[in-house]
Amino acid sequence: MQFDAELLLLAMAPVFLACIGWEAWHLRRTRPGARLYSWPDTLCNAALALMQQAADKLAWLAIIPVYAFVHDHYRVHTWQASWVSFAVLFVAQDLLYYVFHRCSHRVRWLWAAHVVHHSSERMNFSTAFRQSLMYPIAGMWLFWIPLAVLGFAPTQIVAIVLINLGFQFFVHTQAIGKFGGKLRWLEYVFNTPSIHRVHHARNDRYIDRNYAGVLVIWDRLFGSYVEEDSHEAPVYGIVEPLHTYNPLKATFHEWASMAADFASVRGWRNKLRALFAPPAWAADYHARRVADPAPITLDTTMNERNTAAFQTTRRP
């Protein structure tokens, strides 16, 4: 099956914009006090999307030859264009997207790019446009190399990645509730707005869950699925709020923070943590620095400092 995914997404652009317009009108009419859209936030999302698209165009020029080299020299199979090959490509890429997405929440280097998508405190269709131009630097493209090994050509890899991301636009909304009745089965197979709202929430119950791209079966299989609870509304944003609508600050704030932490901690073990530990390490380190500005050394682990700080705060 051959298709031009870039042309397909370009043709879908009016649909995306129409969805944003409808959702903004619908939510203003049905939830007037919620302020689920704001011009500064939406314009920031649009600017981030344009920056990311420009960066991706340049990045693909360097990355596609890498895929081509792997495909030409290391592929294990040659696929004929068919619905079967498309199905294999679709499922394989969606699984790899799950791996990438989960790693992006557990490895700070990857999170430095992905945090852009989560830093808005609103959840609406325009949030889907909130992407980072730093994904190529973070290494997102490395996760698709196995597709070349499986025997898929670079154009097919790029196409399926774009299709997967295009689908995800439609799960960034609060205007659609959980599917019930005859549509309930969708919540067991596909990523849905309800499932993805959980993913964008920073509540303790929801944080770092539901990494699905298109298929939610991976979350259910690997234990990362949590259902949206009608008694606990998602609270959107990140643990360390951004407090700006500047797209450049949204893009680079975590990279700057990571560099500062790398410079301030002592010992290579801690410097590696500053780059590759889960993002929670950084949030905890920043909280500890506020309470005690002394730099962390290899002899004073984060857990030891956590215990000491906790005991200090518990003293009468």
UniProtKB/TrEMBL annotation:
Outline the extent of the Fatty acid hydroxylase domain: 86-224
Q: What is its main location?
A: membrane
Going by the UniProt record, its keywords in alphabetical order are: Lipid metabolism, Membrane, Oxidoreductase, Transmembrane, Transmembrane helix
Q: Which domain of life is it from?
A: Bacteria
User: Which residue ranges does UniProt annotate as crossing the membrane?
Assistant: 6-25, 81-100
Keyword check for Amino-acid biosynthesis:
no
Q: Where in the cell is it found?
A: Endomembrane system
Task: Give the record's membrane topology.
Answer: Multi-pass membrane protein
Q: Which Pfam families match?
A: FA_hydroxylase
Please report the name of this protein according to its UniProt entry: Sterol desaturase/sphingolipid hydroxylase (Fatty acid hydroxylase superfamily)
Q: Which organism is it from?
A: Paraburkholderia terricola
